[in-house]
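Entry for the shared binder. Reason: the reviewer on the internal report wants the predicted structure included alongside the sequence.
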Amino acid sequence: MAGGPPPGLGLGIATGYLSVVVLLPIAALVASAFGGGVGASWSAATSPVALSALKLTLLSAAVVTLINVVMGTLIAWVLVRDSFPGQKIINAVVDLPFALPTIVAGLTLVALYGPDSPLGINLAYTSAAVFVALLFVTLPFVVRSVQPVLHALDTEMEEAAASLGAGSATTFRRIILPNLVPSILSGAALAFARAVGEYGSVVLLASNIPFKSQVMSVFIFGEVENGSPHAAAAASVLLLTISLAVLLAIRAVARLSRGGHG
């Protein structure tokens, strides 16, 4: 007999757990968002300050995700296909943004890019600081998504293509990349989600300056501190809706790529 709980019981436990941990808090957030009426919630979520923070958040998350798609794939390739001294150390360094609490990451970035920067680069309280902070905290996602796929790839097709005269660029584009696209998109979705919701590393370096360096998570926290929980909840629901739509779109493309390749 196969191990594990009966299928029906396992499904019930999993569904119940997800409902309690994920769906109920989201339902409570939505209820709080519309507690003052739909009109008031919409006005709070689409105020000029909120929209400015939302624009910076989504733009930063999108740009950072695109950069990590390229650089994360390159780093994964180097770690899997190349061999060099210190490779294990580099591989461990990739996980540092995972291991560091975000507030510690923020302090690290302030020390390097703040007013007392040893590099002479002061990005504090600028929109550029948002990009730097998000690049730091989202680096591992694409790398760790692509690495296992590269390890599992059969190199026989690459060798066959090379024997037929295909160059390395052609082999990568036509044989390797199609296999990597689903994992790249999965990593991109995770990186985008982390970037959209990041708070700790951003608040110290970029601070909370409306229309300049304020991201949505910091705006929402500010509304809570100012005694406007309904406005904070309304802005959260708007951000959640947009982020969910983007993530679903990325995952749909990943599924299509996987199906097309299969």
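Summary line for the report: The radius of gyration is 22 Å.
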